[in-house]
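Collaborator request, handled under Task 6.
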Amino acid sequence: MLAGIAKDRGGRMVLVAGLREGCALRYAGVVGFGVTRRVVSSLYPILEPLVRASSPFRERVRFAGCVWLEPRVRAEPTFSELVKGRLRDPVFRGLVARSAPARVKVYEGGRRLVRCAAP
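Structure tokens returned to the collaborator:
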């Protein structure tokens, strides 16, 4: 789930990602590869109505200047694995159209992360 847009230490735009665990959102890392100015410009009309004032994560996550979003849009990153709940080597591939979060299965260390029926 997309939870925010921020800049990394090098000034590049990154997408802040989260995974639903139960009905809570857990921080899963940032997706920077594949996120260009052109991509951010094309995402703006979709994400602008979802802007919120605070972080949607259950744990404390801080990013200076982050634009937080309601976690209603699913991204489609590729990644090599989940390591301690964080995406490893994520690459942005686009948004998932008409997704049903309850049907998504993500495995970490052999255990399935439970999905909430409605985001």
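The cover message to the collaborator said: "The longest helix spans residues 37-47. The helical segments are 37-47. Please let us know whether this matches your experimental observations."
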